[in-house]
Design brief:
The complex is a heterodimer of chains A (350) and B (296). Chain A is of the alpha/beta class and 350 residues long. Chain A has 13 helices and 12 strands. In chain A, a hairpin with a 4-residue loop joins strand 1 and strand 2. The longest helix of chain B is centred in the middle third of the chain and has 37 residues. The chains are: A alpha/beta (350), B mainly alpha (296).
Chain lengths: 350, 296
């Protein structure tokens, strides 16, 4: 087992793809209905890069993240199709025993709510040390030593390693959770809305720290969030999810400045404008469709102001706009189609 | 040895008290627990006195002239229907009651909690098998189940312990299952999976410690029931054999003479109450002490 890991570490050099998700389909099969949580998504991530999975609640972001760890609750979760490759491991085909070795070592996860992600009856130092000892053959004292180092790395004094989680504030708990996730310097780190439970000033601190650590360990980061600001700060690439599909993906530049999909435009329009504070917000009308009864065509069509009949008739195919930029929208069949945001962008340029 | 030395190394370096000393610290500040502990200590010392200084002959010697004597300077607890000194009999009998009760409840706790937490954590088929077996066991009256076990295995102290232990375990299965179910959904359990911990390890290092409080209270309150069960089995001849004194057996035999000589039931009964009560107090304190969130 040891050798495998060493060669793997060697392989994952700069620019290597450490995470590849292909045609992933995850459904939650209930007695009466099937929730189509993730429908055919693909993306890949290179070492040291960060991708932001953006979308509203119920878009399938967390399910995607859990699939990468093969932690989708089963039942009712069923991974219907797809492959997930993390550092050369075919995650969905691994047996429980092998999976144990990959989780925490090659791919790790930061959970949404730091208040409940720590075991209340264990000292934080022991919890970090536990993660080290699960994957590395080191003595208890050595592991504890590492735990204290990790704590200091996330900006908590090492003396506090012997305290219990309830003695920490929310932001500090999240730091501890991050320390646990990074204790074995994984190649891929999944952060599932790591700052949602924190207040804004602490959010900024935690994000800065994550950015530093990401650079330090050269970890690939999958950032799950609904906060576009967080994405702009942390990520190199963006994938916008809607009803279990990636509707637009590309580099930060592509998606933020050269927005193509009407849904992405809607997301940006519902943000307050800093330059023109008087400007009215433009919310996206309606709600996300019921994931048990997705419309036959484009899932966004019922809420889309550009939608035509063709949109609700057939599922849109991914369309490559440039090498990096992909959009999922039938309207671009018409070469002259532009969403409003782009039109104004183009006016700016000209 | 190696483990121990690295542990002390950690404690020295990071000024970290051992878990036990910390629990001790917290128990010490709880007056109820201290009271329970003191009473238990006295009872245990009394039991030891009985083991070392009271002989079998002393407690079985009959004296027809001294029947039903109330408490006096000569016989502290009075005498029973055969003229035997009740004080000596009670003290002599403590060893059976205590060793059996503690042993049986500890056994029930270990067996019950093991299966119960597995059932609660894994759910599905494991849960069904374990819980239905438990249902079957608890649908048979405990005394009957105890009788069956003793008569199949033969009547001896060890088999009595097994009988009481097994009949007491369904309760622990239920309690631990329910308790583990409530903590299973917590994120730290999922987080433990995410760092690659095995399920077995998660059950016993993450889920169970968080589900322990109600179990500890049950553990201590179950002690009294166990003493009574031993008594019932002894009474119908499946437990401690007749001339030997045992708290429950003493109560049962005194029952027939409760009107002319109530002291025969009262004194052994008092010891049962005292034992149960002090175990409960200690258990309560222990529950608080084991929960780091209540730390002051």
């Amino acid at each position: 087992m040891g050798n495998e890991h060493i060669t793997n570490n060697g392989l994952a050099a700069e620019g290597d793809i450490v995470l590849e998700v292909k045609n992933l389909v995850v459904h939650y099969v209930l007695k009466k209905e099937t929730v189509e949580a993730v429908n055919d998504i693909s993306f890949s991530l290179k070492k040291g890069r960060a991708i932001g999975l953006v979308g509203e609640t119920g878009a399938g972001k967390t399910t995607t993240a859990l699939s990468i760890m093969n932690l989708v609750p089963d039942p009712p979760g069923v991974i219907k199709n797809g492959t997930i490759n993390v550092c050369g491991y075919d995650i969905l085909k691994l047996k429980h025993n092998e999976l144990k070795k990959v989780r925490g070592k090659d791919v790790s996860m930061i959970f949404q709510d730091p208040m409940t992600a720590l075991n209340p009856v264990m000292r934080v130092g022991d919890q970090i040390a536990e993660s080290v000892r699960l994957h590395e053959n080191v003595s208890k004292a050595k592991a504890y030593e590492r735990a204290v180092e990790m704590l200091e790395l996330v900006g908590i004094s090492g003396e506090r390693a012997s305290e219990f989680p309830h003695q920490f504030s929310g932001g500090m708990k999240q730091r501890v959770v991050i320390a646990i996730a990074l204790a074995c310097s994984p190649h891929v780190l999944i952060a599932d809305e790591p700052t949602t439970a924190l207040d804004v000033t602490i959010q900024a601190q935690v994000l800065d720290m994550m950015n530093d650590l990401k650079k330090k360990f050269n970890t690939a980061l999958v950032m799950i969030t609904h906060d576009l600001g967080v994405v702009a700060k942390m990520c190199d690439e963006v994938a916008v999810m809607y009803a279990g599909r990636i509707v637009e993906s590309g580099t930060l530049e592509d998606v933020f400045n050269d927005t193509m999909h009407p849904y992405t435009e809607g997301l940006f329009n519902s943000l307050p404008n800093l330059e023109n504070r008087e400007a009215e917000l433009e919310p996206i009308p309606g709600l996300m469709p019921d994931p048990t009864k997705l419309p036959p065509g484009c899932s966004f069509a019922p809420r889309c102001k550009y939608a035509t009949e063709a949109c609700s008739a057939k599922r849109p195919e991914p369309r490559k706009v440039s090498d990096t930029h992909t959009v999922l929208c039938t309207r671009y069949d018409d070469p002259s189609f532009r969403i409003k945001r782009r039109q104004s962008n183009e006016q700016h340029v000209s | 040895m190696n483990k121990k030395s690295s542990q002390t190394l950690i404690s020295q370096k990071y000024d970290r008290k051992g878990l036990l000393s910390e629990i001790w610290q917290r128990i010490r500040t709880n007056p109820g627990a201290v009271l329970g502990m003191i009473v238990l200590c006295i009872l245990m010392l009394t039991m030891l006195y009985g083991i070392f200084f009271i002989s079998y002959e002393q407690v079985t010697k009959m004296n027809p002239l001294q029947r039903f004597k109330p408490p006096s300077a000569e016989h502290w607890f009075g005498t029973d229907e055969m003229g035997r000194d009740l004080f000596l009999r009670v003290i002599y009998g403590l060893r059976y009651s205590y060793s059996l009760a503690i042993g049986a409840v500890a056994m029930a706790f270990v067996i019950g909690t093991f299966f119960g937490s597995l059932a609660g954590f894994f759910g599905g088929r494991v849960d069904t098998i374990i819980m239905r077996t438990t249902d079957i066991m608890s649908s048979v009256p405990t005394i009957l189940l105890g009788m069956v076990i003793v008569s199949v295995l033969g009547s001896s102290t060890l088999n009595l312990l097994l009988a009481i232990g097994i009949t007491a375990s369904p309760m622990f299965v239920r309690m631990s299952r329910a308790s583990v179910l409530t903590v299973r959904g917590n994120e730290y359990v999922e987080a433990a999976q995410a760092i690659g911990m095995s399920n077995f390890r998660i059950v016993f290092t993450q889920a169970l410690p968080n589900a322990l409080s109600p179990l500890i209270v049950t553990l201590t309150s179950r002690m009294g029931t166990a003493i009574l069960e031993i008594a019932s089995l002894s009474f119908i001849g499946f437990g401690i054999k007749v001339p030997l004194p045992e708290l429950g057996a003493l109560v049962s035999s005194g029952r027939n003479f409760i009107n002319p000589a109530p002291h025969i039931t009262i004194f052994p009964g008092l010891f049962i109450v005292l034992t149960t009560f002090s175990f409960a107090m200690l258990g309560d304190g222990l529950r608080d002490a084991l929960d780091p969130r209540l730390k002051k």
